[in-house]
Amino acid sequence: SQARPAPSAHAAPAEAFDAIIVGAGFSGLYQLHRLRDGLGLRAVVLEAGDGIGGTWYWNRYPGARCDSESYAYSYSFSKELEQEWEWSERYPEQPEIMRYLNHVADRFDLRRDIRLGTRVTAARFDGRENRWHVTTAQGGQLTAPFLITAVGCLSTANVPDIPGLESFAGEWYHTGQWPRGGVDFTGKRVGQIGTGSTGIQAAPVIAAQAAHLTVFQRTANYSIPARNAPLTEEQKRHIKANYDEIRRITRASTNGHPFLISPRSALEATPEEREALYEAAWRHGGLQFRATFGDLLVDKAANDTASDFIRDKIRGIVKDPEVAEKLVPLDHPFATKRPPIDTEYFETFNRDNVLLVDVRADPIREITPRGVRTRDHEYPLDIIVFATGFDAMTGPLLAIDIRGEDGQSLREAWADGPRTYLGLQVAGFPNLFTITGPGSPSVLCNMPVAIEQHVDWVTDCIRHLRENRLARIEATGAATDRWVAHVNEVADATLLPLAGSSWYLGANVPGKPRVFMPYAGGMARYRTICDEVAAKGYEGFQLG
Ligand code: N01
Description:
By secondary structure, the chain is of the alpha/beta class. Strands 1-7-6-5-19 form a five-stranded mixed sheet, with no helix packed on it. It is globular, with a radius of gyration of 24 Å. The two termini are about 15 Å apart. The structure holds 3-acetylpyridine adenine dinucleotide (N01). 3-acetylpyridine adenine dinucleotide (N01) binds next to helix 5. 3-acetylpyridine adenine dinucleotide binds next to helix 5.
């Protein structure tokens, strides 16, 4: 069908598509493949970056490496792709993931339908014609019945509003907007603000190169050794021979990882057994530590056993007892904030050229031309690295002026926090699908697993609409209310909301509503719910 002319009398007519996808990361690439090569739709991907890769395009900071095992942090939709691609390490480094995604883009001939350097600024739904009208910062006007956001959950950089930043005479960078050419720290005095997953990966690498590193820590963090290593030929062969089983486990698991959470309670084990199991998990390394017992995220007493184990490890690694005590997390239970994994993070504080500043005890007051000034000291710096995280989950969506039926804006609809049905749709915004949107497992899951499940569901849904000559689908208000209540209920049954400063809650961004955003009911359970909704003729959605 033909698009109407764009609203402005002088504007060029909008280009018409069957579907518009925003973002060329893991989600957007796969969504394009499914819609174009699976359903034969005319689909286009609009990508703000000058390259594909999404989060991996932007996050090229020192030490950037995936926290999921490489072979599980990959697409499962093509057996040929699984067999021909070879991961080199247990956890892939940022450049290796970029090579993988570029390989996928070439192999499935995706580039011809991807427009790089094209930032979507606005999207409005026209209910008379059941079409989305999309505007780009580059002046483009595009229209399609379906709009699919594949914008990622952690793509809007959060640079804290510290007075004086503009006066700083040195260089500063946010880890999520890292310069493509890299940053040379040789001989420099570097200040790093933030000790989340990113800061914990970056600090050891920066410290090894810089003349001096000052780490400004607001919240001490639990971290488990990653134990990264090259994959042996034997491991590579084993992985390729067992992909079916690996995928079966990732789909059956709570978090989309290639291992299951033990059903056992930490409190049933004797102290000696517990210690031995934690020690084995610590030696094995990685996010699997969290799976040692089944109740670490639901029972505070059980969690205490893991939290205490890690605290003791930190005290054992860090030689200066005063520094060690500052690094010991006390204000939240283990894994209620996304647990980092590291390569020699705590060891970094044994170096002579590294200083830890506890900014809870001595808060940052301002940035001066010379460096960072806290209440009690000034730290002269050449480079400041903001490892300060993201306006997570809602940030990338609300950065676009999205307007649904009757001109209602998403920003208004979500003024008190995000409200979705299944994390896939928003009432009042027909034919808009939000890949890994708030209210879906998303960031609590190994992302490619969550992404493939969403893309497959959306593709099946669009196929259903087209086969039945239906022009629109919209989540009902009642189904949304029930889903939001369910999302809160499952979060409240865990310890997750206890982490007061967590970005899961939006607590890291001043003024952001405090709502637990991801779905904590587990990926396997969520997949079943989504499948049942579809099988019941898209229960909770209005089709027309
Ligand atoms: O961001 P974060 P991140 N003054 O928000 C501190 C994923 N990820 O980029 O905790 C001083 O976790 C803040 O302190 P506090 C992963 O899901 C994946 O590290 O708010 N400090 C915190 O220490 C992860 O969870 C991978 O008190 C300030 C830090 O900055 C998510 O991305 C790798 C401050 C921010 O931590 C986000 O991680 C990396 C201020 N004004 C990340 N503002 C892989 O799998 C904030 N902070 C590879």
